[in-house]
């Protein structure tokens, strides 16, 4: 293993790691927003919204994320959607992970005991008040860990945007392999940095989960 | 509302799930301050009937009236929601499994709805919580979380939570069925106290002794109908119907064994 080479190029990989982190954070935010909307639609009283929610989930979980990215980035301009690679990456991955988060959030909400809704409604609280003050605070605790699983998958999933030439960890490794012909070293560097990012994210989620349990 | 308007009036209640009829034309009138027990085997429809009174389990036929207001009015969704949320404030309900809000303290459980629905200030809501908890003997647990309470204590808090809305009638759905035997009495004591304060109550229960000592009237339900009703002395000592006699005999055997 050529450690000298690794030491020489690692600053460039650190820079690429920041791009991966940025991608991950923005994707998480967009994913949570899509997930919240999707879950609200799936749980709606109105069949039309339930249909929209279900269609969203089955469409984006039922096709490869890579195809979705290609469609958005390469196919987008044909229908008037002009995005740079980074934007396409965030939007494509965000909407994709949002479909998974929809199911996570919905699962946590329906896991809250039905008796809670009955007790709140019996006191005279509206559907919305019941959801906001009784169900969601309890569901929030239940969804932290499974959302953590989604986020873990999402961070690794950001590697896909290398295929649309976003200069993140995976693409950077490929670039340096092109000039050094050392795939083992370069992929090791990338992999190690992914591990660090995922470790930190995992700790943050565990911390949030603990915090929610105490509160 | 004139003097002849009944306090709580349930007219020709029916409920079916597909072809399965669980409530078959039950009518019941309850006076203000009256305490009615509903007994019967499981699956007789007594809980469903009770839950129909505040429209938690909507009837498929019949009407429920409380002080001249129809509870289960047929209205467009939005108007119905507004109406039912208002009416339910007058109908307290206590569940078998307490259903306290686990993320809120005892105080929070009691003040949540009055603050939100009646616009009580923090100070007023606190005072209300203290009053109601005192009423059920739980004032010293006001800052506990539900998970720190025994079953009997949870149920007393649940009763205080319902009382805090100042309901006109209280519904008890097997309030002591989930409790360990030694915890039943403390909840019964609270219900007896409410009875002595002339709270109107409808109590679905398996506890015949309690029903006999507290209630003004007993309904025996089986297979979706009221088989027999009358004062507890008659229903428990001298029932007319064979079905009632069978049920009571089986129930007593069950209690003894």
TrEMBL record, chain A:
GO (cellular component) term, any one: ATP-binding cassette (ABC) transporter complex
Membrane topology: Multi-pass membrane protein
InterPro entries: AA_ABC_transptr_permease_3TM, ArtM/GltK/GlnP/TcyL/YhdX-like, MetI-like, MetI-like_sf
Residue spans crossing the bilayer: 12-39, 51-73, 79-100, 147-167, 187-206
Domain annotation ABC transmembrane type-1: ranges: 17-205
Alphabetized CDD domains for the sequence: TM_PBP2
Keywords tagged on the record: Amino-acid transport, Cell membrane, Membrane, Transmembrane, Transmembrane helix, Transport
GO terms under biological process: amino acid transport
Subcellular location per the Swiss-Prot or TrEMBL entry: Cell inner membrane; Cell membrane
Keyword tRNA processing: no
Gene Ontology MF terms in the entry: transmembrane transporter activity
Family, per entry: Belongs to the binding-protein-dependent transport system permease family. HisMQ subfamily.
Protein name: Nickel transporter
Protein's organism: Zhengella mangrovi
Taxonomic path: Bacteria, Pseudomonadati, Pseudomonadota, Alphaproteobacteria, Hyphomicrobiales
UniProtKB/TrEMBL annotation, chain B:
Family under the similarity heading: Belongs to the ABC transporter superfamily.
UniProt subcellular location: Cell membrane
Gene Ontology molecular functions: ABC-type amino acid transporter activity; ATP binding; ATP hydrolysis activity
Lipid bilayer topology: Peripheral membrane protein
Superkingdom of the source species: Bacteria
Organism lineage string: Bacteria, Pseudomonadati, Pseudomonadota, Alphaproteobacteria, Hyphomicrobiales
Signal sequence range: none
Protein name: Polar amino acid ABC transporter ATP-binding protein
One GO CC annotation: plasma membrane
Domain (ABC transporter) ranges: 8-248
Membrane keyword on record: yes
Chief location bin: membrane
Keyword Nucleotide-binding: yes
Keywords: Amino-acid transport, ATP-binding, Cell membrane, Membrane, Nucleotide-binding, Transport
Gene3D superfamilies from the UniProt entry: P-loop containing nucleotide triphosphate hydrolases
């Amino acid at each position: 293993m050529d450690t000298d080479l690794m030491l020489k190029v690692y600053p460039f990989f650190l820079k690429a790691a920041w791009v991966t982190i940025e991608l991950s954070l923005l994707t998480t935010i967009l994913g949570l927003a899509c997930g919240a909307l999707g879950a609200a639609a799936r749980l709606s009283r109105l069949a039309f919204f339930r249909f929209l929610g279900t269609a969203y989930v089955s469409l984006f979980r039922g096709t490869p994320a890579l195809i979705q990215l290609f469609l958005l980035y390469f196919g987008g301009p044909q229908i008037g959607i002009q995005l740079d690679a980074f934007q396409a990456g965030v939007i494509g991955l965000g909407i994709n992970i949002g479909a998974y988060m929809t199911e996570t959030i919905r699962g946590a909400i329906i896991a809250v005991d039905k008796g809670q809704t009955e007790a709140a409604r019996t006191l005279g609280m509206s559907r919305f008040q019941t959801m906001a003050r009784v169900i969601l605070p309890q569901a929030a605790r239940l969804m932290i860990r499974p959302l953590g699983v989604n986020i873990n998958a999402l961070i690794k999933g950001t590697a896909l945007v290398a295929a649309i030439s976003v200069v993140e960890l995976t693409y950077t490794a490929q670039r340096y392999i092109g000039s050094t012909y050392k795939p083992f070293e370069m992929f090791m560097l990338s992999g190690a940095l992914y591990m660090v990012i995922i470790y930190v994210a995992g700790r943050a989620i565990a911390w949030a989960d603990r915090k929610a349990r105490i509160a | 509302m004139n003097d002849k308007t009944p306090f709580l009036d349930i007219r020709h209640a029916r409920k079916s799930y597909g072809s399965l009829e669980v409530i078959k034309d039950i009518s019941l009138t309850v006076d203000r301050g009256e305490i009615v027990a509903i007994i019967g085997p499981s699956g007789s429809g007594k809980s469903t009937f009770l839950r129909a009174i505040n429209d938690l389990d909507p009837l498929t036929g019949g009407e429920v009236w409380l002080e001249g207001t129809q509870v289960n009015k047929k209205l467009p969704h939005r108007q119905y929601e507004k109406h039912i949320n208002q009416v339910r404030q007058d109908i307290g309900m206590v569940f078998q499994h307490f259903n306290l809000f686990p993320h809120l303290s005892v105080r929070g459980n009691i003040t949540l709805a009055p603050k939100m629905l009646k616009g009580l200030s923090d100070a007023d809501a606190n005072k209300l919580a203290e009053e109601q908890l005192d009423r059920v003997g739980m004032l010293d647990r006001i800052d506990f979380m539900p998970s720190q309470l025994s079953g009997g204590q949870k149920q007393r808090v649940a009763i205080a939570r319902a009382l805090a809305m100042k309901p006109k009638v209280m519904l008890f759905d097997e309030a002591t069925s989930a409790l360990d035997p030694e915890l039943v009495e403390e909840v019964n004591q609270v219900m007896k106290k409410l009875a002595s304060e002339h709270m109107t109550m409808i109590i679905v229960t398996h506890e015949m002794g309690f029903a006999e000592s507290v209630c003004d009237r007993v309904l025996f339900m089986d297979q979706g109908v009221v088989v027999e009703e009358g004062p507890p002395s008659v229903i428990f000592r001298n029932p007319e119907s064979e079905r009632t006699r069978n049920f009571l005999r089986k129930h007593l055997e069950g209690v003894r064994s």
